[in-house]
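Supplementary Note 3. Input sequence used for the single-chain structure prediction.
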Amino acid sequence: QVQLVESGGGLVQPGGSLRLSCVASGSIVSIDDMAWYRQAPGKGRELVATIRSGGSTNYVDSVKGRFTISRDNAKNTVYLQMNTLKPEDTAVYYCNAVVLTSSYRYLEPWGQGTLVTVSS
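The predicted structure, written as discrete structure tokens, is reproduced below.
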């Protein structure tokens, strides 16, 4: 079993910053792609940022220049640095990863989500 646990969410004022972390644990051999998604109230789940195992990244247009995804492979962790936060960034943020387990099966688990609220 593989678990993803997000942390770092909270309440922040517009223009502020937060750093989200997502730690993968369990029967992990390796982790391929990692990603952050978010789901705003009344909206569908949106892909925010991805990072490949080689380090290449992609972002949804609305966060380009403000968010940075990174990873620490030694810690099985992906981060999302969020700067210049806007109210429209308010959402539950989820991490996702493609994980090769010790049984050599690929899993794509989801974290439980961490709530980011951007409000005055």
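The mean pLDDT is 96. The chain is about 0% helix and 60% strand.
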